[in-house]
Design goal:
This protein has helices spanning 5-19, 31-40, 46-56, 74-83, 87-102, 171-183; strands at 71-72, 107-111, 114-119, 123-130, 134-139, 159-164. The protein is an alpha+beta fold. The protein has a six-stranded antiparallel beta sheet with strand order 1-2-3-4-5-6. It is elongated, with a radius of gyration of 28 Å.
């Protein structure tokens, strides 16, 4: 039995809709269809690119400290430094280069959203962390360093050094502290 004229027209319209890839004859493609077509064509929509970019950029915690997942090696430390905001990123690069130059076999990791530096078999000796107005460099056995880093801690062995925007960085003094700290037993708990 033949289909009614109404059913035949409906089948023809559905058949054409399947055959046409892209915008419908009305001129506007629905957003869901556009995403589906873009995905099938290997393209990325602006929305998908924006979401992927947002996932790639670490979240900044209070004071502008990057939220980086815990990890061992240079890659997590470099991810932290790359995510440091503004002037702090340049200081982070300088600190990392100074530490790596001063202690060539330095071990790196990220713990508690901060890069840690240590020596294999001796533990961690230094870390740094972003705050709103400065970068806090933490010497985990800072009380044994000479001259003593200037900022006290609640922990009896720890001393801090703060780096503020625009202040000159005494790399010779920092290198001296780094060299001393790397020779002492570090803190294995971190």
């Amino acid at each position: 039995m033949d289909a009614s004229p109404k059913e035949a027209k409906s089948k023809r319209i559905r058949g054409k809709a399947r055959a046409v890839k892209g915008p419908s004859r009305g001129g506007k493609e629905k957003p869901a269809a556009r995403k589906k077509r873009a995905a099938s064509d290997g393209e990325q929509t602006a929305e998908a690119r924006s979401k992927a970019s947002a996932r790639a950029r670490p979240k900044l915690l209070s004071g502008g400290n990057p939220q980086i997942p815990k990890g061992d090696g240079d890659a997590p430390a470099q991810a932290y430094i790359a995510a440091m905001p503004g002037w702090k990123r340049d200081i982070g690069r300088r600190l990392d280069a100074l530490i790596t130059h001063t202690v060539p076999r330095v071990r790196k990791a990220v713990r508690w959203n901060s890069p840690f530096y240590g020596v294999e078999g001796r533990g961690w000796f230094l870390t740094f962390h972003c705050f709103a107005k400065y970068i806090k460099v933490t010497f985990l056995r800072g009380m044994s360093l000479r001259p003593l880093p200037p900022v006290e801690s609640k922990h009896p062995d720890v001393r801090y050094f703060h780096i503020r925007e625009g202040e000159p960085l005494d790399e010779k003094l920092l290198a001296r502290w780094i060299r001393q700290a790397a020779k002492r037993p570090g803190d294995p708990l971190f």
